[in-house]
Amino acid sequence: MRSNATSCWHAALLQSINNEPLEVQFQTVIHEFARSLSRKARCELAANPVGSSRMSQHEAHDLTGVSRDTIRKASKTETTTTP
After folding, report:
1. pTM attached to this predicted model
2. 3-state SS string for 11-75
3. What is the pLDDT along the chain (83 residues), one digit of tens a residue?
């Protein structure tokens, strides 16, 4: 597993090599990272930014592969259990 700094560097390097936008490279790094996680951890990763309104369910699904229904359920659970 890569550190955040290594992942950022890796994304920047890939951008310079592939001439792809940095945003696309970050999405690739996040997607690869999400695939390495357990199902529960992927659900938590997807639900966190959705629950705090920083990302749509669709965006979280695209990045993590977690179904939008699962994200919606996890987001509701997270908001009801957080004080």
Report:
1. 0.61
2. HHHHHHHHCCCHHHHHHHHHHHHHHCCCHHHHHHHHHHHHHCCCCCHHHHHHHHCCCHHHHHHHH
3. 556 667 766 766 666 666 778 788 788 888 888 889 999 999 888 888 887 788 889 988 988 899 999 988 887 776 555 55
> Is 59 a domain residue?
yes
Tally of structural domains, the chain: 1
Structural domain that includes position 74: 37-81
Contacts of 42 (CB under 8 A, 6+ apart): 34, 64, 65, 66
